[in-house]
Design brief:
- The chain is of the alpha/beta class.
- The chain has 4 domains: about 160 residues, no CATH class; about 100 residues, Helix Hairpins, CATH 1.10.287.70; about 120 residues, NAD(P)-binding Rossmann-like Domain (Rossmann fold, 3-Layer(aba) Sandwich), CATH 3.40.50.720; about 80 residues, Regulator of K+ conductance, C-terminal domain (Alpha-Beta Plaits).
- Helix content is about 60%, strand content about 10%.
- It is built from 22 helices and 10 strands.
- It has a 6-stranded parallel β-sheet, with helices on both faces. It has a 4-stranded antiparallel β-sheet with strand order 7-10-8-9.
- Strand 4, helix 17 and strand 5 form a beta-alpha-beta unit.
Length: about 525
Amino acid sequence: MVAAAFFLHAYQPYQKLKTFFYNFLENPHYQYKKYFDFFMMGLIFLSVYILIYSVKNELSNQWLVFNNYAISLIFLTEYFLRIWIYSDNSKIIIDQYEHDLFMHRSFSSTVALKAIIKQKIKFMTSPMAIVDVLAIMPFFHEFRIFRIFVLFRVLKLFRYAKSLRRLISILSSKKFEILTLAVFAAIMIMISSVLIYVMEANNLESKINTLPDALYWSVVTIFTVGYGDIVPVTSEGRAVAMLIIVSGIAVISVATSIVVSAFTEKLDEIKTERLIDEVSRLERFYLICGYSALTHEVIRKLHKRDLPIVVLEKDLALVAVARAQGFLALEYDSASLETYHTVKIHFEKQVEAIILLHESDVLNIYAALTIRELTKTIPLFSILHSIENRKKLTLAGIHSIVNTHELVGLMSKIISSQPVAFDVMHALRSEETPTVIDEVRLDIGMEEKFYELLHEPLFYKRLSVLGIYKFSTQAFLFNPSQLEGIEVGDVAIIVANRSLINEFRTKLHRRVRR
């Protein structure tokens, strides 16, 4: 048993297969999960439609087989897959083996098996797993009563629809209040049922002749529905009715206030989750840590590159300002590892570059150290507030540092000694001119695609490559040859029309993805 557990734990094809099914069934950030959810929801609605259609119409054998066998088998397969991925049996066995080995005693297979069974039973007794079992019941369609279990398939929508799961989580946060209200309503229904039965049962004109009749009337009345098919005819019964009507209004009012307060308390959390989902769907974006007046100006410039921008800022007031200005801002600390695990940012796949714009060098250093713990290759830029902190920022893994005071001095020097060169550079960086100088981030394996694209009629002699900045050597190569290799983090400096650069960037990344 231990040998098999170690084998499965180390066997890559098995682990990859299990990870694939876990992503497919449980990982909301997996790109193909939504297609599976839509497919399963389609089966649910189709099976309910077949049930409704079959009430007054004769179904063909093909439809019956599809509804009773095919759909049920798909749900059964999904159920067993969920049991499989819920816990790692091999890890449980290995942990038990290592624990027994540490304690200098023989491996207890019984304890390991009990732990495995306990985990599986925990899943099978969960509400959604019970719904899964009920949804499989139509497979036994020979028993007519099981056909109605098709309706339980509708409850499976809570598994696939994220908004429904969110609704349940919001209401569960008020489970104590809801339970208290339910107990109060149940007591009122019980009391009113007995009272109305005692008052009305012996009256020949009354329709409340049995306790079930009284219970039906009480439920309809206390929840303020009032169909009017059963009404009290005695003075005592009407007095009870008035009491129940007032109690019903109180129950509905309290229930409404509980739901409203639950949504109010969770409103910010819902908005944040929606923004996180929006970030996870972005293919490429710039990540900016810290929001200020400088950040606003940087974002305005970056918008010219047609890439989305995500802002991380822990100050709620600044986050509100950023969102009011139409930016995708999240209230998280950029220096915390938990932030990136919560937001689930895939640095290598999604982030074009990271810019640190906190109003303190210390905050920028902490953010840089955290980011470099997660990725070593993403270009990292930072503003420098105090010149004495430059070395600290460099040691933190920031390869491009900008100090506004030094920048002003450099510009003054260039203007005085090289005015024409400065005018040209200023024109290329200006927003008024159609021709601009821009950067295109490169990656491994782009050599052939990059140089091949430069010779296409659309870009040939219309787009100029000044050079390539080598990330590994921190050196700039002017007019590089086609033999020059491209590494992760390299950046090509290009001069062309802005729309032409955007098209070049799009085609380059599209080709590489293919």
